[in-house]
Every structure is written in C-alpha cells, then in structure tokens.
Design goal:
4 helices, alpha/beta
C-alpha cells in the first residue's frame, strides 16, 4: 500500500497483487484515514470486479456520513452494476474532480 498526501486528499495506491490483500491492509490502517478525503487508485491493478469493490461500501458510507469523500479509481468494471453509495470513476483526474465537487457541495450545504 502506497499512501500519499496531496492537499486535502489522501491518495492510496495498491502495490498488493489482489484487491482482497489490499483490503486487509486497508482495514488495519483505516483509522489513519478517517476524517480525510480518500482516493483509492486501482487503475494499475488487474482483476478488480464488482464483488471486490463492494468490500469498500461500508467505508464509503462512513465517509459520506462524516462529510468527506471516498472515491475509487478502477478501469474495466460495469459502473451501472455498483451501488450508488460508492463512488467509482475510471481516472485519477476524475476522482480528484469528484472530491473537489463534493467539497463545494458540502460548503454550499447540499
């Protein structure tokens, strides 16, 4: 797991082989990410699917309830088959844009 801080975003990139391995490490370190805008970048990881991404649903909901963003970057999945409660985008730039838009929405009271 590679963790980088960019402005008000914590960018987490997987250096594990499988999403399930990443998720185990993520759960262990999650307390370090609470209260922050989080982007998880799986764009370089193969084998990511709808089932893998559902692991992160509870964390996505927690962030949304806490007033922070939680976005996952992944390519090659059917975005329509994923729950609306988890924000999935195909590129890192889109993830950063989503965090910025959600921040503006929160500032405006939406």
């Amino acid at each position: 797991m590679i963790i980088e801080k960019e402005e008000d975003i914590i960018l987490i990139t997987s250096d594990e082989i499988a999403v399930s391995d990443f998720f185990i490490v993520f759960k262990e370190k999650y307390s370090n990410f609470e209260g922050a805008n989080v982007i998880i970048d799986f764009s370089g990881l193969k084998g990511v699917n709808t089932e893998n991404l559902s692991f992160f649903l509870e964390f996505s909901e927690k962030h949304r309830n806490d007033g922070t963003s939680f976005v996952v970057v992944v390519n090659g999945v059917d975005f329509d088959s994923l729950p609306e409660e988890i924000m999935i985008v195909p590129t890192l730039q889109e993830a950063k844009d989503i965090v910025e838009m959600e921040k503006i929405e929160r500032d405006l009271g939406f």
